[in-house]
Amino acid sequence: MGAKRAPAPSVDHSDELDQAGEVINLSSGLSARQERFCLEYLVDGCGKRAYIRAGYAPKSADVCASQLLRKPKVAARIAQLQAEQAQRLQFDADRVLEELIPLCLSDMSELIGEDGRLVTDLSKLPRDVTTAIQSFRVTYRPDGTTTVAVKFFNKITALTLAGKHKSVRAFCRRESRSRQIQFEVVSGWDDESK
Question: How do strand 133-140 and strand 30-31 relate by DSSP bridges?
Protein backbone atom coordinates (compact mmCIF):
# COMPACT_ATOMS: atom_id res chain seq x y z
CA MET A 1 0.00 0.00 0.00
CA GLY A 2 1.19 3.49 -0.77
CA ALA A 3 1.68 6.32 1.65
CA LYS A 4 -1.34 8.36 2.57
CA ARG A 5 -1.56 11.66 0.83
CA ALA A 6 -2.07 14.85 2.77
CA PRO A 7 -5.37 16.54 2.03
CA ALA A 8 -5.17 19.25 -0.61
CA PRO A 9 -4.94 22.70 0.90
CA SER A 10 -8.19 24.61 0.75
CA VAL A 11 -8.16 27.46 -1.68
CA ASP A 12 -9.20 30.81 -0.31
CA HIS A 13 -10.97 32.71 -3.06
CA SER A 14 -11.57 35.79 -0.87
CA ASP A 15 -8.39 37.49 -2.16
CA GLU A 16 -7.31 38.42 -5.69
CA LEU A 17 -4.55 40.56 -7.14
CA ASP A 18 -5.20 44.06 -8.47
CA GLN A 19 -3.41 45.58 -11.48
CA ALA A 20 -0.46 46.66 -9.30
CA GLY A 21 -0.08 43.12 -7.97
CA GLU A 22 -1.48 43.96 -4.52
CA VAL A 23 -3.79 41.50 -2.83
CA ILE A 24 -7.41 42.64 -2.88
CA ASN A 25 -9.82 41.38 -0.25
CA LEU A 26 -13.06 40.76 -2.10
CA SER A 27 -15.22 41.25 0.98
CA SER A 28 -14.04 44.85 1.47
CA GLY A 29 -12.70 45.60 -2.00
CA LEU A 30 -9.52 47.05 -0.50
CA SER A 31 -5.91 46.14 -1.10
CA ALA A 32 -3.83 45.02 1.86
CA ARG A 33 -2.16 48.45 2.00
CA GLN A 34 -5.50 50.26 1.82
CA GLU A 35 -6.78 48.12 4.70
CA ARG A 36 -3.61 48.92 6.64
CA PHE A 37 -4.14 52.62 5.87
CA CYS A 38 -7.65 52.41 7.32
CA LEU A 39 -6.35 50.76 10.48
CA GLU A 40 -3.51 53.27 10.81
CA TYR A 41 -5.95 56.16 10.29
CA LEU A 42 -7.73 55.12 13.49
CA VAL A 43 -4.51 55.69 15.47
CA ASP A 44 -4.45 59.48 15.20
CA GLY A 45 -6.83 60.56 12.44
CA CYS A 46 -3.94 61.94 10.37
CA GLY A 47 -4.13 60.77 6.78
CA LYS A 48 -0.54 61.69 5.93
CA ARG A 49 0.94 59.73 8.84
CA ALA A 50 -1.42 56.79 8.27
CA TYR A 51 -0.43 56.73 4.61
CA ILE A 52 3.28 56.48 5.48
CA ARG A 53 2.73 53.93 8.27
CA ALA A 54 0.72 51.79 5.84
CA GLY A 55 3.83 51.37 3.70
CA TYR A 56 3.23 53.95 1.00
CA ALA A 57 6.02 56.30 -0.10
CA PRO A 58 6.32 59.48 2.00
CA LYS A 59 6.61 61.68 -1.10
CA SER A 60 3.33 63.57 -1.56
CA ALA A 61 1.79 61.55 1.28
CA ASP A 62 -0.56 64.38 2.25
CA VAL A 63 -2.05 64.66 -1.25
CA CYS A 64 -2.21 60.90 -1.81
CA ALA A 65 -3.76 60.31 1.62
CA SER A 66 -6.40 62.92 0.88
CA GLN A 67 -7.22 61.17 -2.40
CA LEU A 68 -7.34 57.80 -0.65
CA LEU A 69 -9.69 59.15 2.03
CA ARG A 70 -12.12 60.29 -0.69
CA LYS A 71 -12.44 56.80 -2.15
CA PRO A 72 -15.88 55.48 -1.18
CA LYS A 73 -14.65 52.02 -0.17
CA VAL A 74 -11.87 53.46 1.99
CA ALA A 75 -14.20 56.00 3.62
CA ALA A 76 -16.78 53.28 4.28
CA ARG A 77 -14.16 50.98 5.81
CA ILE A 78 -12.85 53.75 8.08
CA ALA A 79 -16.41 54.53 9.18
CA GLN A 80 -16.99 50.84 9.88
CA LEU A 81 -13.75 50.56 11.90
CA GLN A 82 -14.56 53.72 13.86
CA ALA A 83 -18.05 52.43 14.67
CA GLU A 84 -16.60 49.10 15.83
CA GLN A 85 -14.01 50.91 17.92
CA ALA A 86 -16.62 53.18 19.51
CA GLN A 87 -18.76 50.15 20.34
CA ARG A 88 -15.80 48.31 21.90
CA LEU A 89 -14.77 51.34 23.91
CA GLN A 90 -18.34 52.41 24.63
CA PHE A 91 -17.15 55.92 23.92
CA ASP A 92 -19.60 58.11 22.09
CA ALA A 93 -20.83 61.71 22.18
CA ASP A 94 -22.86 61.11 25.33
CA ARG A 95 -19.82 59.70 27.11
CA VAL A 96 -17.74 62.71 26.06
CA LEU A 97 -20.34 65.04 27.56
CA GLU A 98 -20.54 62.92 30.72
CA GLU A 99 -16.80 63.44 31.19
CA LEU A 100 -16.86 67.14 30.28
CA ILE A 101 -19.75 68.21 32.51
CA PRO A 102 -17.90 67.69 35.82
CA LEU A 103 -15.04 69.80 34.44
CA CYS A 104 -17.49 72.52 33.49
CA LEU A 105 -19.29 72.51 36.83
CA SER A 106 -16.32 71.94 39.13
CA ASP A 107 -16.29 74.08 42.25
CA MET A 108 -12.94 74.59 43.96
CA SER A 109 -14.65 75.49 47.22
CA GLU A 110 -15.52 71.79 47.61
CA LEU A 111 -11.80 71.18 48.22
CA ILE A 112 -12.09 73.01 51.53
CA GLY A 113 -13.22 70.88 54.44
CA GLU A 114 -15.43 71.94 57.36
CA ASP A 115 -12.31 72.81 59.34
CA GLY A 116 -11.29 75.35 56.67
CA ARG A 117 -8.34 73.29 55.47
CA LEU A 118 -7.72 71.68 52.12
CA VAL A 119 -9.13 68.15 51.86
CA THR A 120 -6.20 65.93 50.90
CA ASP A 121 -8.05 62.63 51.11
CA LEU A 122 -9.46 62.32 47.59
CA SER A 123 -11.93 59.65 48.70
CA LYS A 124 -13.77 62.34 50.71
CA LEU A 125 -14.31 64.56 47.68
CA PRO A 126 -17.30 64.35 45.32
CA ARG A 127 -16.66 62.66 41.97
CA ASP A 128 -17.29 65.94 40.12
CA VAL A 129 -14.33 67.49 41.94
CA THR A 130 -11.94 64.57 41.58
CA THR A 131 -12.74 64.30 37.87
CA ALA A 132 -11.80 67.96 37.41
CA ILE A 133 -8.40 67.53 39.09
CA GLN A 134 -5.59 67.24 36.58
CA SER A 135 -2.81 66.72 39.11
CA PHE A 136 -2.41 66.60 42.87
CA ARG A 137 1.00 66.99 44.51
CA VAL A 138 1.88 66.85 48.20
CA THR A 139 5.32 68.05 49.27
CA TYR A 140 6.62 67.27 52.75
CA ARG A 141 9.37 69.64 53.87
CA PRO A 142 12.13 68.84 56.39
CA ASP A 143 10.81 71.56 58.73
CA GLY A 144 7.56 69.57 59.09
CA THR A 145 5.39 71.73 56.84
CA THR A 146 3.37 70.28 54.03
CA THR A 147 2.49 71.94 50.75
CA VAL A 148 -0.41 70.69 48.67
CA ALA A 149 -0.73 71.77 45.03
CA VAL A 150 -3.90 71.00 43.12
CA LYS A 151 -4.13 71.70 39.39
CA PHE A 152 -7.50 71.58 37.68
CA PHE A 153 -8.20 70.94 34.03
CA ASN A 154 -8.87 74.14 32.11
CA LYS A 155 -12.50 75.01 32.75
CA ILE A 156 -12.74 77.42 29.81
CA THR A 157 -11.58 74.69 27.42
CA ALA A 158 -14.08 72.23 28.90
CA LEU A 159 -16.92 74.75 28.62
CA THR A 160 -15.95 75.53 25.02
CA LEU A 161 -15.83 71.87 24.03
CA ALA A 162 -19.15 71.12 25.73
CA GLY A 163 -20.71 74.23 24.20
CA LYS A 164 -19.70 73.14 20.71
CA HIS A 165 -21.31 69.72 21.13
CA LYS A 166 -24.09 69.20 18.61
CA SER A 167 -26.76 68.70 21.27
CA VAL A 168 -25.70 71.74 23.31
CA ARG A 169 -25.00 74.15 20.42
CA ALA A 170 -24.19 77.07 22.73
CA PHE A 171 -22.15 78.86 20.08
CA CYS A 172 -24.37 78.38 17.05
CA ARG A 173 -26.22 81.22 15.46
CA ARG A 174 -29.82 81.18 16.39
CA GLU A 175 -32.52 82.70 14.31
CA SER A 176 -34.28 85.40 16.21
CA ARG A 177 -37.93 85.88 15.70
CA SER A 178 -38.60 89.49 16.36
CA ARG A 179 -41.77 91.40 15.83
CA GLN A 180 -41.80 94.07 13.23
CA ILE A 181 -43.05 97.32 14.59
CA GLN A 182 -43.83 100.15 12.25
CA PHE A 183 -43.22 103.69 13.35
CA GLU A 184 -44.55 106.77 11.74
CA VAL A 185 -42.37 109.81 11.97
CA VAL A 186 -44.44 112.90 12.56
CA SER A 187 -42.85 116.26 12.26
CA GLY A 188 -44.15 119.40 13.86
CA TRP A 189 -45.87 117.75 16.75
CA ASP A 190 -48.38 120.12 18.30
CA ASP A 191 -49.68 119.58 21.74
CA GLU A 192 -53.40 120.33 21.47
CA SER A 193 -53.93 120.11 25.19
CA LYS A 194 -52.69 123.70 25.71
Answer: unpaired
pTM above 0.70, yes or no: no
| 43: CATH | 1.10.10.1400
Cα–Cα distance between 102 and 97 in angstroms, integer?
Answer: 9
Domain extent at residue 31: 19-89
Minimal CA–CA distance to 61: which of 48, 79, 70, 72?
A: 48
Distance separating alpha carbons of residues 147 and 143, to the nearest angstrom: 12
- DSSP 8-class letter at 168: T
Q: What is the pLDDT of residues 145-191, one digit of tens each?
A: 888 788 888 888 888 887 777 566 656 555 555 555 555 555 555 55
Q: How far apart are CA 80 and CA 15, in angstroms?
A: 20
Taking alpha carbons only, the member of 95, 88, 80, 86 closest to residue 28 is 80
